[in-house]
Write the structure tokens for this entry.
Amino acid sequence: MRLLARRKLAMMTGECLSVVIPAYNEEATLAGVVQRVLAVDCLQEVVIVDDCSTDKTAAMADELARLYPKVRAIHRPQNGGKTEALKTGFAVTAGEIVIVQDADLEYDPAEIGDVIAPIREGQADVVYGSRFLVRKAARVLYFYHYLANKGLTFLSNLFTNINLTDVETGYKAFRGEIIRSMIITSSGFGFEIEVTAKVAKLRCAIYEVPISYHGRTYEEGKKIGFLDGVAALWYILKFNLLCGLKDSFRVLPLQRGGFAGPREASNKPNQ
């Protein structure tokens, strides 16, 4: 408990935040996103993971790392999708808090402080930024995407028994030891479903906060598609029914209330 108290003090008073930015062909928006992230209070580092882009994203990431001491650029040798890029980024983070920031401008970095506040205040281990919890500014786009998100969120909640409103949100923040200890095996956009199933198994304190959303059209660069939704259905079944706690984390991480207890440490699928 003393360790948790010291960590809380460090999070409230010092630089504690690692921001991981997966980027694939985002030359138009990457610099703007990074500049906004650099203005975030308590920022410790920004990790840009270029997923083998074919435009100028890689060169832009290197230039940003040269200009700003807190920015680090990592280049994957081949395109592996968002989940692989995130795994690469998480592995090198050092912050007490880690958050995902997309390289486009769909999510506003000015709201990162609100997303991570429950962790900094010692209330939460994981926080999701919800586009639906309390409706903030949101660009009106695809109704079918809305239905798909609601359907996937419902099915995910059915298996995890946690009442999230937005499982597919791009803003997910974690205590650093939780995400760095997690064994991530999905691909493509599977991260959203996999991480939700695994933090539910850990039975840590999960919060949601409202965020705004400025979505893109496919013509503007949106990448997620129908097949990603089909894959998400499989991942809901796989990571909730076929994957136990010991298969989810290398080491059980320290939580807000201490280490996971004996019940949580079993290798049985989440009930």
User: Anything to note?
Assistant: The beta strands are 17-23, 43-50, 71-75, 97-100, 126-130, 172-175, 206-210. The mean pLDDT is 87.
